[in-house]
């Protein structure tokens, strides 16, 4: 039987002083650790920060980002490094994870390694030895049924060898998934594969950069993934097949936002002024200057389209993802009303905020997902908006 590893407790916004958290949250984010149920961890991933495995200060970087609120990281041996760097990257990864394993202070985030080949999984676990306890799993690139099975078989072998639970996060990014004539068959194969290994699948990640690459496209910082219709159609089909709320689905995470500051904007800012009135206007200006207004819009569209969390390649992207993951007081109130035991028979009721209809049966799955997010990310106070949460999260970035 696989051991369910435990570790230091983590919580979103845990880096804030208790008094600050108390002022922001009606219900504070709950604690979790590496041994928490997969259903909890898949939501708790939040903004998953990628880092090349070749970084000489990798262990120090991991601890630094954990102190800033990062709870999940991917140490990458695939696209983020050159082909000639793989061996050195593996050696550095083993050395840095061994250093982290011996660290006495600070909280480690959930750590995953993105590999290129199935054999790297068993080899790295062997080389890590006891330090494998710092690892939560592996990210599997360009995942299809044919390519994915050997990765998952290697993961099962690695689990047996080390006696610990190791999760997989397949990346859906192959041309076969993008191309219309092969999409249905490819999706069917992915479903068969991940269902066979369901207990090991923590989340499915979308490789939108690879989708764009297949057609020579790259979205501008003024646009979201959903403005690129080729990409939007794939996201919709992936969620349709793999993200269902009937118990058969998986957590599907949002695509990467790949932009940093740019000197010139073509389109007007997308952030409305009203939520940022008064002193918060300076925050709005800073977000626009750092091209984060497009990111905020894409995060909202991710949620509207059934995605949770997001792949991030820059620390400044983490706070916006987490701020917009906090459940608003209004959402919480609606979810509570819908899930009351006396509502089990269905029916329609007016929201406590008197601005919408809550239909118990159709909205039940939404309410259950909202309450799970509330457990992990907390519930904002009635008078607290994402602006205050974002300002708190950006204070040290």
What does this protein look like?
The protein is an alpha/beta fold and 397 residues long. The protein has one domain: Alpha-Beta Barrel (TIM Barrel). 44% of the residues lie in helices and 12% in strands. The protein has 16 helices and twelve strands. The protein has helices at 18-24, 38-44, 58-67, 86-101, 118-128, 145-162, 175-178, 180-196, 208-213, 229-242, 281-289, 292-304, 318-323, 329-339, 360-377, 386-393; strands at 25-27, 47-52, 72-76, 110-114, 137-140, 167-172, 204-206, 252-257, 310-312, 348-350, 357-359, 379-380. It has an eight-stranded parallel barrel, surrounded by four helices. Strands 1-12 form a two-stranded antiparallel ribbon. A two-stranded antiparallel ribbon has the order 10-11. Helix 3 (58-67) links the parallel strand 2 and strand 3 (72-76). The chain is globular. The two termini are 42 Å apart. The relative contact order is 0.13. Mean pLDDT is 89; it is low at 263-267.
Strand-helix topology:
Blueprint: H1 18-24, E1 25-27, H2 38-44, E2 47-52, H3 58-67, E3 72-76, H4 86-101, E4 110-114, H5 118-128, E5 137-140, H6 145-162, E6 167-172, H7 175-178, H8 180-196, E7 204-206, H9 208-213, H10 229-242, E8 252-257, H11 281-289, H12 292-304, E9 310-312, H13 318-323, H14 329-339, E10 348-350, E11 357-359, H15 360-377, E12 379-380, H16 386-393
Parallel strand pairs: 2-3, 2-9, 3-4, 4-5, 5-6, 6-7, 7-8, 8-9
Antiparallel strand pairs: 1-12, 10-11
